[in-house]
Amino acid sequence: TGAPLRAYGTPRLSPDGTRVAAEIYDQNTSDIWIWDFARLRRLTFDSGGSGMSVWTPDGRQIIFQSCRTGMPSVFKQAAGGTGTVDRVSTSETPQWSTSITPDGTWVAGFDLPPRTAPHVIFLPLSGAVVRPSSNPALGVSQSPIEPVAETRFKGAMADFSPNGRYIAYSSDESGRPEIYVRPFPRVDYGRWQVSTAGGTRPVWAPSGRELFYLDASNALTAVPVGTSGSTISIGIPAKLFDTGYAEPNPSRHYDVSADGRRFLMLKSTGDPNATPVSMVLVEHWFEELTQRVNGK
Predict the structure, then answer these.
(1) One-character DSSP codes across 212-228
(2) Quick one: average pLDDT of 158-177?
């Protein structure tokens, strides 16, 4: 992309594809910067650290995680840098944001309560409501349902489908990380397993007919997904290519273009052909030295 050489993380393309939001790590902290393919502009100024950007569908705001209150919480701010920084989550447990519905009313993320595994959470934005429907394909029914904001289940790195009716996420409930899909907003209406040999960091193709994720070997993988009525059909996963790019932490450090044909990734500046640096550790050498000296 021609961006300056910096320590980037979790790059996210704007809805129109003209900008990239990513955190930059610097001196044990991070802030969100925006690259418009010509100029790099800093968005957040937070000594506690900010990251994991999510663009609103209109491209006007950034939803992000920040530690400015002492623990990771979800905030929103105008992408142009004007206005105030508003807090979205009020939980006393650490929370991170990962996706937003196409209508911009719900944010998906995950929290990390003490001594438990991460759980997928849903945070309401303005206008977020749950309207019961008799159409099971929408994931809800006429019966009373639990408010989606109070629903949580084991998993992380959730991503809404382009039509907002499904959510993909990663969970180790089977003993290892795999990719699953649930309907939204009635997340308890069904569950489908997508990956079969390990999977993390899912993201939907803009068409909604594919899911991308990293398999157990960190290869970028695609799987066809079909929806008909209230059911989902999962195709056979196929490796697209070995990723071989930088992953500073367990977040999703890649994104897909609006046409679904290109991927934005973080390039490592290290030489992949360089000889690994090795170290030899010799224990109890002083005792051996003493024995040899006394032996003389």
Answers:
(1) EEE-TT-EEEEEEEEEE
(2) 94
Q: Please, what sign has the CA dihedral across residues 50, 22, 85, 106?
A: negative
- Residue that has been written with the tokens 């066809």 in this structure: 224
E-assigned strand segments in 27-92: 29-35, 40-42, 50-55, 61-66, 73-78, 86-87
Q: What is the DSSP-derived secondary structure letter of residue 268?
A: P
Nearest to 49 by CA among 69, 34, 29: 29
Enter the tokens of residue 285: 């050498």
pLDDT band at 141 (very low <50, low <70, confident <90, very high): very low
Which pTM value belongs to this model?
0.83
Give all strands of the β-sheet with 73-78 in edge-to-edge order: 50-55, 61-66, 73-78, 86-87
The count of other CB atoms within 10 Å of the CB of residue 211 is 26
Strand partners, 155: none
33: which strand partners?
Answer: 22, 42
pLDDT, residue 282, reads: 79
Residue pair 139/101 in contact by the 8 Å Cβ criterion: no
Listed in sequence order, the residues at least 6 apart from 294 whose beta carbon sits closer than 8 Å to its beta carbon are none
- Which token pair is 212? 């991308």
Q: Are strands 238-242 and 254-256 parallel, antiparallel or unpaired?
A: unpaired
The residue whose two tokens read 């008909």 is 228
147 SS3 class: coil
Residue 294, classed as helix, strand or coil, is helix
**Residue 80 pLDDT > 80:** yes
